[in-house]
Amino acid sequence: MEISAIMPVLGGVATRRMLINATSRREFEDAVSSGALVRVNRGRYAVPGVHEGTELALRVTGHVCLVSAALSHGWKVKLVPALPQIVVPKDRRIPPAVRSSMELVWADLSHEQVEGLATDASTTLEMCGRRLPFDEALSVADSALREGFPRQELLHIAESARGPGSARLRRVAAMADGRAANPFESVLRAIAAAVPGLDVEPQVQVRGDLGLDVRCDLADRGLRIVLEADSFEWHGDRAALRRDARRYDLLVADGWTVLRFAWEDVMHDQDWVRQVLTLVVERTQRAGSART
Q1: Residue 107, SS3?
Q2: pLDDT digits (tens, 9 = 90+) for 131-156
Q3: Which domains are present in the chain?
Q4: Of 47, 43, 38, 37, which is closest to residue 67 (Cα–Cα)?
Q5: Following CA atoms 195, 198, 199, 203 in sequence, which dihedral angle do they give, to the nearest 10 degrees?
Q6: pTM of the full structure
């Protein structure tokens, strides 16, 4: 599969090893040479819009913000923006021809809120939490925590927030969890949060009979429901297929309901995913009531 098709699944940012394992060393090197990949901090590679955004920010004397800033910090995201997202002061006038090449946000920032040509980590998280859809904001927050941003600082930012979007920011901060492996899991968890009676947490270790000892992507311990988001480590051999089959068979034998969701459905057909989750929760709750 081409790197251009892989990057959205990986959250817009990936390590060199991950990209080579998914494609080949030659394809990776060709992508870097052609500009299809650009290097960001901590030895990670991202889509070229990261550098394009900094160049545009410099052109309009602004700063990269929102998802574009998250990518510049090396955080994974649900969706890479079609145009670089740039914040400029409220009184800044941008010619229409220039505006068409970027997604503009008007806001006055202090020097403490920027880092180079991008909003700093704290400001990026606050802006994303206030302005993005919940699942997109959660993906960014999960990734930031996974990369070492202090959870207590995120909670403090949310608790101190006032005005438009502050309630959404507090919800994102309360639910953010650095254990989430990738945006795929984060978005699936966001969908599950809207299902009455379902309470999942990421990376749950499950042990049981017949040697059952697996780490599940998401699990509701009370309802014994497992949600699996098969990320990008697609299996290419019979041994891997057998391991997966045994894993899920043992979970079912131990009394768990296992649901596996494709990336395309989680990202592009959330109503269907939510309906499936709702039906399974209702069925599980009815079965529990019948036993009592």
Answers
A1: coil
A2: 999 999 999 999 999 999 999 999 99
A3: 48-178 (no CATH), 184-291 (3.40.960.10)
A4: 47
A5: -100
A6: 0.89
